[in-house]
Amino acid sequence: MSGKTPQAAGLPVFALVDCNSFYASCERVFRPDLASTPIVVLSNNDSCVIARSYDAKPYVKMGAPYFQIKDTLRRYGIVPFSSNYSLYGQLSERVMTLIESMVCDSETYSIDEKFCTLTGMPGNLTEFGREIRAKVLKHTGIPVGVGIAHTKTLAKLANYTAKRFQAQTGGVVNLCDAFKRDWVLRNTAVEEVWGIGRRMTAHMHALGIHSAMDLAKADPVLLGRKFSVVLEKTVRELAGTSCLALEDAAPAKQEICCSRMFGKRLDNAPQIKEAVATYAQRASEKLRAQHSLCKKIRVSIRTGMFNPDEAKYVNGVLVELPYPTNDVRLITRAATEAVDRLYRPGFRYSKAEVLLMDLRQPGEFTDDLFAQTQPVTADRVMTVLDQINARWGRGTLRAACVPANPEWAMRRELMSQSYTTRLDQLWKVKAN
């Protein structure tokens, strides 16, 4: 699946660059000794598998509970890691910045995926895809796959094929050629198409649609009426008609949630308040990052729900703020005061959640003339707070009720070093 493919005049060309087993690949960047060792990455509190290197996939299922697979990991020499989100975020930024420097326009789709436009680019696009792949690997240590096609959905399918047939494709597949596109469509199950989930797969099978080619040949209008306009666009895109353009920026979220399991069960209100204050701080950071204001907060706490020997309790409360705000001080105070309304003694709590609701951009709230608004001084304080934390690290400035190293923090006993964010954990190279 290589070689020169001529561009059809007037048709757009998209590329999807997707990092291979991203979390596991990040762990290998600063551990070259693990280059040939299978790796799994665990979720919060080291509870279950959320990422696997390619060589670990035959032995460990996604979502497998860690406590159940410890013997399997030892048997096959698989190394587990706790989630190191600061490392993954830093390496993702490096990868995305490097890709952006090589193309005219792009869209960051997720932490490990970026769509690019190659429309009008001269030369061999397959070779350009290999150039992207080689440059990213050289400068970041992260392996990527590249899929190229006339639509975003086909580019996603091309990327899947590049990984599926890594040895034959070299990690790059160009489906601008109709013959190659049809081969991939015929040899790809419909459930592998972007946006076709488990429930939709069942509907497709009931209609006799089993491959991506079957879906590409289906009537888009009929499927759109029966299911959704999203599916109609998917069908058209598989057939080669571009319906999805690059997004200049991700739309602002309508709700922002910060929720974590505690590292241990909590049975006292002060520690739960600390956790809620910490989550409120993180949620307000996300709120200000998208330049939004919040009018309502929902705070909830719950016990573990699966241990038959533990008493169970779950409750939440909705708090109306006095005015639309992004001020972490007001949000934190409202969230922690809500804990007093929720907390019940005699239970061992396992999780808390802070949900920011009724989000708007400044100027979109239509209150009466005399309604209270956020003071200008609060805007200035939040700007300075974010600038300091951006320069010196998250949590450098924080509410007094937010501890630096809480006892209840999630367990990450297998976490790698913070090679990119902490001076005391920089990579050390010893000369012989």
UniProtKB/TrEMBL annotation:
Keywords: DNA damage, DNA repair, Nucleotidyltransferase, SOS mutagenesis, SOS response, Transferase. InterPro entries: DNA/RNA_pol_sf, DNA_pol_Y-fam_little_finger, DNA_polymerase-Y, DUF4113, Rev_trsase/Diguanyl_cyclase, UmuC. Residues 14-197 form the UmuC domain. One of its GO terms (molecular function) is damaged DNA binding. Its EC number is 2.7.7.7. PROSITE patterns: UMUC. CDD domains: PolY_Pol_V_umuC (cd01700). Pfam families: DUF4113, IMS, IMS_C. The keyword Iron does not apply. It comes from the Bacteria. The keyword Cytoplasm does not apply. Gene3D superfamilies: 3.30.70.270, 3.40.1170.60, 5' to 3' exonuclease, C-terminal subdomain. It is an enzyme of class 2 (transferase). GO terms for cellular component: cytosol. GO terms for biological process: DNA repair; error-prone translesion synthesis; SOS response. Belongs to the DNA polymerase type-Y family. This is Translesion error-prone DNA polymerase V subunit UmuC. It comes from Pseudomonas gessardii.
